[in-house]
## 1
Amino acid sequence: MPNSPKSKIVARIDSRADDLIGISRDIWNHPESGFREKRTATLVADFMRQIGLAPRENIAITGVIAKVNTGRPGPHIAIMGELDSLIVPEHRLADPETGAAHVCGHNIQIGNMLAASVGLSQPEILDMLSGSISFMAVPAEEFIEIEYREALRESGKIEFLAGKQEFIRLGELDDVDIAMLTHADPSERKTLRAGTSHNGMIAKSVRFIGRSAHAGGAPHLGINALNAANLAMHAIALQRETFQDDDHVRIHPIITRGGAAVSSVPANVTMEMFIRAASVEAMKDAEVKVDQALRAGAMAIGATVEISTSPGYMPSKLNPELNSVYDEAVRDLLGESGVGRMPHRTSSTDMGDVSLLIPTMQSYAGGASGRTHSNEFEITDWDLDVLEAGKALALTAFELLTQDAQRCRKIVNDFKAPFTIPDYLSTLRQFRRTDVFSG
Ligand SMILES: [Zn+2]
Ligand SMILES: [Zn+2]
């Protein structure tokens, strides 16, 4: 394809290869967790200005958006990258103070989103397109540091605990027709595999309240909150036989405070847990059983349990037609061996929320090793994860918006959104509640 528009996109991205990989490595070396990504956001905005874009900053605290208009009416595509790291203090590059580390590889997402912006924002390319493209650096995909985010919520800085949910609440997706993002894939194969679906998730903070007493001298005067929590976890485990395979239910509690002093009967025990499943119905079914189990633990021991429920993420349903357009771009770049499909994932993402509103594509770039969310995670193929992944996003956007955006319009028209934005926001709000039960 010499001198074709697509080859111009590819060549322009290759000409900025050092800068694009440089910024991705810089972010890799300076991880910041969700709603704290100030340095990362500044890097993104500066780079955008350097290539002639006009970014808006501080959206949902740290988000950055630059919109490019073709001047012709048509659909609006969002190409996204996530700003935040995880916290895994054992990683070799973990921030010594915060423990933040890029063990989900979101740094390469920023690189490939910016690569796509470099490839697409050339006047002779935009001349062939209709509609507009927004390049979005989104905060806080990882659902962590819940206490910190609850404090942000209480001070009115956010309402929801994840970045894309906040973008939706703030209206940043109101006029967006299609969303795309490329995540790292912890596999060393040279593939860019479009995803299928993800589990959704509900988050709970739980507190068992008992009565302290001398643990050796007078345990009969106490009410052991740790025993109540223990029983509740066992009851949750005994519910597992009722979960159906196709629902991919995952429930994983941790105890965040197990007691104050070993010589005192634990009177204040706290837990956090995620309840994940492949559909909202299955999430709600599992949630009912978890709440029963928590109450059963409290009842058996005579403790009180306080259950705070927060909306997590919606299950994702990624768009098959959009995946096909993306596959074509990958085939052009890497040949048939580069194309693939990521099967259902039992992890969760706020891209799931987006996917219930507009046609959404999330692909996975190989070129990483070690388990994600672990101390061993490494990026091994920066060219694939930043440059090729960025080219694939740019070529997909080009194909969608060229020729009066015919292919894009068809995908948008055929899409039956499970939720309108107001319905989605009210559903999310309904998940939030606190229940108290005294056993
Ligand atoms: Zn992650
Ligand atoms: Zn991730």
Note: Residues 5-198+315-423 form a domain with the Aminopeptidase fold (CATH 3.40.630.10).
## 2
Amino acid sequence: MLPDFTPTTLAIEPLERAETIPASWYTDSSFNAHEREVIFARTWQYIGHVCMIPNIGDTRVASVAGESILLVRDQHGQARAFYNVCRHRAGPLATGDGCGARMLQCKYHGWTYTLDGRLRGVPHWNRVDLFEREDFGLRAVRITEWEGLLFVDLSGDAPQIDEVLAGIRERITPATLRDKQFHARYVYPVACNWKVYMDNYLEGYHVPIVHPELNKVLDYTNYVTEAHPWYSLQYSPFRSDADNSMYGANATEAFYYCVFPNLMLNIIAGRLQLNYVRPLDAEHCEVIFDYFYDDVTSHAAQEQIATDVRYSEEVQREDEEICAHVQHGLHSRSYHTGRFSVEREEGVHHFQALLKGCLKKRTYSG
Ligand code: FES
Ligand SMILES: [Fe+2]
């Protein structure tokens, strides 16, 4: 039985009256396991960028909803995803990233599969009865691409990605996401439940207290939150009287998109900083930052990137620290639920409503 899982805690109330989700939802390990099934295995999960598997036979391994997933560029140049689990006795096809493979060979007894997942070579298989190779291809995972970003959906029935992300492309013009160059990935372990990190991302309420330097750059008076069916946007123009050189000369505004459940797209002219959160257990997660820029090669661009990354790391450190304190606070016998600022926490409320919607659907309609 899941803790505090009742019609009352699952009810979605208007922002003005709503309570935050119960503390136990952030600390209980059975709740965490439930979320893996009803949220992470049933929504589009970012798995990488097309430029990470540029050539035929390039492979990457990613963890999605606790599963090891293999991303492959097949012999026709198409990106595919498979469960990284051999159909023989569940060995791994890959234990790390690779390039230029002509086929996929299991690391246990050497069964081989074509890059599009058909079983091909089966060593020492004489006298085996009632076995058809075509029945033992790799299990495929639904995969899609949006603006160069690759997503997988383990359930196979998440809404189309264009529906989930509708409106983003148009809203950010003249900025674009396509044709960006990958710069680097940074992984930050954080001592909190994944939802603590998401809640924190979803409001600028904490910025003046937790991020005094960032606060000098954002124009708080024009900070807006927009709620869309599957994502919310926090938008902030930069202050014209502040030094925002860490974002480059053309930066005048920032778009902070949060796509349910765990993806964040931080867009500033010429730059996409993508973050996604992976729960590790109920009380730990890791946040992965992928940086993309229009230009990653010129000397000036590299200096700019180094400044941007350094600045983001500072903000990230501040967030990690406060999130770990919040996780600790959620265990207090004094705390059960809280309330929302109508002016500043609409994004958190929107996220928690989507969360409840997913949990409810699976509770009441199977
Ligand atoms: S588990 Fe893959 S070949 Fe045996
Ligand atoms: Fe923050």
Note: The pocket of FE2/S2 (inorganic) cluster (ligand 1) is lined by residues 86, 88-91, 106, 108-111 (CB under 6 Å).
